[in-house]
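Most newcomers find our protein records easier to grasp once they have seen one. A record pairs a protein's sequence with a compact description of its fold. An example says more than a description, so a record of this kind follows:
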Amino acid sequence: MFMSKAFSLLKPVRLKMSGQSNEADRFIHPAAASRGQHCRRSVDCERRYKTHRGSAGRRPTSAPQIKVMAEEELPGVLILDIGGTHGVLENLAALLKKHFHLITMREFLENKKELKKKIQSVFVFECRPTIDRELLESLPNLKVIGNSGVGVDHLDLKMISKFGVKVTNTPRAVADPTADIGMALMLASARRLVEGCQIAVSPETKHFAVDWLGVELTGATLGIIGMGSIGYKVARRATAFDMRILYHNRNRRRKEEEEAVGAHYCEKMEDLLQQSDFVMLVVNLTPETHKLIGKKELELMKPTATLINISRGAVIDQDALVEALQNKVIRAAALDVTYPEPLPRDHPLLKLNNIIITPHIGTATVQALHMMAEEAIANMLAVLNGQPIPSEVFPK
């Protein structure tokens, strides 16, 4: 049915990494380590993401216009590194340099006494650097942590707030590309694109089987769990396929918003699971959503249904998913996220033929990374200048 081989859309280009001390390595969050991370994939493909302000097709950003200050006036921002496997991409670092004095973790560790008072912000890129108590205690003038991306499950918001430090994220930049990858996975799964591509190019293929069939999106029912900005954009895209749209959310959308996309609210998630041909997860990872979809929920789904996850890997009980796919409890799954990332190479999910896995590429576009950096910069400068903060994240 579906090829278990991960459907990677990125071809990494290894860049030479600047030397880092072992102490600096401590600031790579355990969640982003090779076997424990649930943040987005490691970025070692800078040349794939090189961006320019004049790039054709770039989406307009709603971030406010930012005045560039003289170099001697620039506030300090701490980053893990520039370039390499874990550092900020060089073109994004160039954006930061227009508004901040960049200080790498290595520079900070080598000269804490002088630099600790200059650092007023931290730019978190790909969940790095790690924000722990020790780091916060060493930065007396820190005012804001600007997270590049919308998910903040790698940050201890309560602990950070006790130091009087604000946290921001970038929801505007991520919504469109993440909705796109949700639709791409749904289409690829429905029409068996990964498997079909491999059949078409295989040297062993002599003819195309007439009974090799997928299913259509047109007229099918899509159940969206999590109807925030991303979920709503998925619904808008799904209307172009004449899909029936159900959704489950903590708060019901306004009537006019529902009518605009033809969405029907399901107060109980169970009702959505039982009716949907495709179930898409678009929720934040919280204690309440950890393993939101388990054995019980999978058994409520149609045997012809497909589960799509573009949120966080830990939202699904992966052991239960393996069992459901092996026993044909559901038709298929398409995942842009897993836990951990990447999965161990012997993980049973990688051995199944009715699953598609991509390497957490929901925001892996030239435009999105550029916009995320711009949005993060606007957030951090707003905090430093005492202005209204476009996207602040509060502890619950």
